[in-house]
């Protein structure tokens, strides 16, 4: 056991929890590694063995939030309904998760926006996971689809207007049902086009 009194995994987990709480209360711009360390009762050097700096700690917090969001929507991939219905539900659920986060935790959501703007690895990894899930559902929905990975990139790109974190903020005050209807319409158009080219 290290001198902090916490096992390495426990220290990392607790640091992410504390950082998450501090982001929600004081804002992500004011997050400091030294404040997180002080709240944990450890030296900031102890945290630097787990996080290279503030950006790395922010990535860990954003990554934790993305993992939780992914857990919530992963079940849709294998849930009930046709593959097309599941893809639609998956895309709608992602939109709802982001809209809810932007309203309930605006500072944490801003940290996510910043990580997206800076093309941080934590966001890129999750984009790859989402693209793989889209490819699985497209392959099931369109059995003759020649290149599901390419089609998934197309669908993912088209859905950025609904899922990009900055754009989610732009239409946050818009009627949710109307936004979801537009998403469905775009998805059905894309799938119809992919079926025609298969």
**Beta strand %:** under 5%
Tell me, briefly, the overall form: elongated
Major sheet description:
none
Q: Can you give the mean pLDDT?
A: 92
- What do we call the CATH topology of the largest domain? Tetracycline Repressor, domain 2
Outline the fold blueprint:
Blueprint: H1 8-26, H2 33-40, H3 44-48, H4 54-77, H5 83-104, H6 106-117, H7 121-141, H8 148-163, H9 165-170, H10 176-197
Task: Give your account of this protein's structure.
The longest helix has 24 residues, at 54-77. The chain has 10 helices and no strands. The protein has helices at 8-26, 33-40, 44-48, 54-77, 83-104, 106-117, 121-141, 148-163, 165-170, 176-197. It has 2 domains: 8-48, Arc Repressor Mutant, subunit A, CATH 1.10.10; 61-197, Tetracycline Repressor, domain 2 (Orthogonal Bundle). With 198 residues, the protein is mainly alpha-helical.
Overview in brief:
The chain is mainly α.
Feature tags:
single chain; mainly alpha; Arc Repressor Mutant, subunit A; Tetracycline Repressor, domain 2
């Amino acid at each position: 056991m290290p001198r902090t009194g916490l096992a390495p995994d426990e220290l990392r987990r607790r640091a992410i929890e504390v950082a998450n709480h501090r982001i929600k209360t004081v804002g992500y711009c004011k997050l400091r590694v030294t404040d997180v360390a002080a709240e944990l009762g450890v030296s900031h050097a102890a945290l630097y063995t787990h996080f290279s700096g503030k950006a790395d700690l922010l990535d860990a917090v954003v990554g934790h939030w993305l993992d939780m969001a992914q857990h919530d929507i992963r079940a849709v991939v294998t849930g009930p309904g046709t593959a097309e219905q599941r893809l639609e539900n998956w895309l709608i659920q992602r939109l709802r998760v982001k809209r809810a986060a932007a309203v309930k935790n605006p500072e944490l959501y801003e940290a996510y926006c910043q990580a997206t703007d800076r093309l941080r690895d934590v966001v890129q990894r999750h984009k790859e996971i989402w693209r793989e899930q889209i490819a699985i559902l497209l392959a099931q929905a369109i059995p003759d689809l020649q290149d599901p990975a390419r089609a998934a990139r197309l669908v993912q790109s088209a859905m950025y207007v609904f899922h990009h974190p900055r754009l989610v903020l732009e239409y946050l005050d818009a009627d949710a049902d109307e936004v979801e209807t537009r998403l469905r319409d775009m998805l059905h158009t894309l799938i119809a086009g992919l079926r025609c080219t298969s």
